[in-house]
Amino acid sequence: MRSLISTAFISLDGVMEGPGGEPGYRNSGWTFKQVEFVPEAYEIKGREQEEAAAMLLGRASYEAFSPVWPSMAEFARYNAMPKYVVSSTLAEDDLVADWGHTTVLRSLDEVAALKETDGGPIIVHGSAALNHNLSDAGLIDRYHLLVFPLLLGAGKRLFSATDKDVQQLKLVEHDTYANGVQKQVFDVVRAAA
After folding, report:
1. In angstroms, rounded to a whole number, what is the distance separating the alpha carbons of residues 53 and 175?
2. For 4-9+39-149+167-188, which CATH class?
3. Predicted confidence (pLDDT) per residue in 73-116, tens digit
4. DSSP string covering 147-177, please?
């Protein structure tokens, strides 16, 4: 079974919206406008590209990343990687031609089936609504979080607000950097069968 890893930049109050300057969010660009850049804090981002075997995105994140990421040197490994977009509305004709093989999945059942295939880890970038649905369905296996020392208030959050049973996490890696950013890597603890 393949593991599904959710990776995100989040504020201390859990906001993940607009970290890189995406339009439409009042605090857009908060990862570089508000916090000093410390290269070692981003080591995990390079490691993710080397370790992941596929990328999973929601429709909105795919539409935001696909026009930009294919030409960015820092995301070069993602170009050749298979990509999957979970959407009930995205048409095959809406996919970009220069970002490698991309498959549209229409349901969480298809995501669960993808996890059952052979291959390495599947990484989820951005995709707030998809993260909520994946978490609620018990499909996320690990979180890679870079937590920024900011309180952003309003904005899309990484974690679902669904009323559900407690989900225990196990901290497996952590670090704190000179700019106050914290790396937190958690495995999702599954109940014994």
Report:
1. 25
2. alpha beta
3. 888 899 889 999 999 999 989 999 889 899 999 999 999 999 99
4. EES----SS-BSS---------EEEEEEEE-
